[in-house]
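Figure caption, in words: inputs first, then the predicted bound structure.
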Amino acid sequence: MGGSVLARLVIVSNRVARPGEAAARAGGLAVALREALARNGGLWFGWSGETVEGPSGPIDLQQDPRDSRIGYATFDLNAGDHRAFYNGFANGVIWPLFHLRPGLSVYHRPAFEGYSRVNAAFAERLVPLLRANDIVWVHDYHFIPLAAELRRRNVRNRIGFFLHIPFPPPELLVSLPVHKSLVADLLRYDLIGLQTADDVRSLARYVGEEVKGRLGGMGRVEALGQSSRVAAFPIGIDAAHFSRLAEESAGRPEVQRLRDSLLNRDLVIGVDRLDYSKGLPQRLEAFHHLLGEWPEHRSRATLLQISPVSRGEVAQYRALRREVEGLAGRINGRFAEADWTPVRYLNRSFSRRVLAGFLRLGRVGLVTPARDGMNLVAKEYIAAQNPADPGVLVLSRFAGAAHELRDALIVNPFDIEEVATALHHALIMPREQRIARWKTLMAVISANTIDTWSESFLRALEDTHPLARPALLRA
Ligand code: GDG
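Bound structure (GDP-alpha-D-glucose present):
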């Protein structure tokens, strides 16, 4: 590859999906990014998943056993730095604030310093691995300052950034003491990809109103002495692949056991990391309300809520877990019969295959986040359906996916009565209506897939410097 005129792709993300790490558990995003690497050859750079007591470690380079043109570069992080970076600032400050929960966002200067230190450590280790032609694609809120750290070390490559979570309106962003330096660093990227037009508007408003920058055509942004481009690239899934997975999984023992256990009752399914952005307490309240107001669904509808624990070290997540457990217990205590449990609440994860099979069994997909960058489960639920007898998606208007999935039953997750009413309508919807809605939704997710997403982002990144720069090879 050394002498190739084609650019190599370098992906940076917090966790790296290395070969050998349970492939079945790797999400669609990991698979898609690996495919983008396979098209051009390239490097996936990130944290190893291990912490050490001493200083952060050296780079461990591995080659993909199936494709020698793909490499994985990871390193261990100092435990204290990791805590400050990951739990302290990324998930303790940015995540809640960007999901419109300023009350949960607790800023401490040492956490921000840890975040900055880890970004510098990433840059320091990445620089020696970079070649002149490489195109660098950085993922998510953990790495807002990374381009600035790379530029400080004289890296002149094209560097793009994709934010998987929402971008907050400026009125909220300014509550963060370091908002200006964070946005100035963000603008060091050549291209900033956001999930939706709303997110782009929020960033544009910050630039125009808060720091009196200039907004030009094609998403050009000039502010704080920097110049960049910002655009929406709504992330998708490999819809055809997920449909096949769901169909094939119908015969798997785990899926058959779930089907048998339902005894022809209606399955309402929710799949979300146990996170306060996912609207789980309100969702359970809505299910409670459904059973209270429409007794015909008692002994008929079962809610299967799959919520693997995430970020369990963060206090807010532990509190949420207790709250959700309490609510599930309350509903079951009030409505359960000897032969029917209304809520099956599972704090565990399943393989992607089994999950696809479960989603296919759902008569209703209940996806009601309080705020979500996109929400891939909404798209996976659609892809998993049986075209001859599809279920109905009930979707929060505050998920990025609601911009595209307009034929879902769109709800305000904070309006318990509205969600319960939508659930009722979904459960009684005649088949022709379900098919008509599903067809439109399936067409949408088949047109904007994970591949079109990565290709359009990378094409836009190449276009940011159209002259004298090598292009990525297109499949
Ligand atoms: C962030 C943004 C944005 C879930 N449980 C299991 C499992 N999953 C898979 C789902 C889906 C993925 O994890 C979750 O993606 P989401 O999009 O729903 O949510 P976040 O994790 O919050 O992701 C989000 C996304 O980034 C992409 O840009 O859409 O807004 O917050 O694929 O199926 N997978 C397996 N077992 C489980 O138990 N195998």
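Residues 315-335 form the longest helix (21 residues).
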